Amino acid sequence: MITTAELWNKDQALRRMMGKESLLQRVVALFLEQYPTQWQTLRSNLETGDLAGVQAQAHTLKGSAGELALPALTDCFANIEQAAKMRDLPATTSACEQTQPVADRTLEALQQDC
Amino acid sequence: MQQQSSRTIQDCHVLIVDDQPSSRLILESLLEDMVECSTTDSASKAIAFCRAQRPDLVLMDVVMPDMSGHDACRLLADIAETSQIPVIFVTGSATDEEQEKCWDAGGVDFVEKPVNPTTLRNRVKSHLNHKMKTDLLEQLIYLDRLTGAFNRHYLEDSLPGIIRDCLRHERDLAFILFDIDFFKQYNDEYGHLQGDTCLHKVSHTTMHSLLRPRDKLIRVGGEEFLVVLPETDTAGALAVAQRLLTVIKALAIPHQHSPEKVVTVSAGVAEYQPSDDRNLKKAVSRADTALYEAKSQGRNCVVVYDVALEGVSE
Question: Which reaction does it catalyse (chain B) (predicted)?
Answer without folding.
Answer: 2 GTP = 3',3'-c-di-GMP + 2 diphosphate
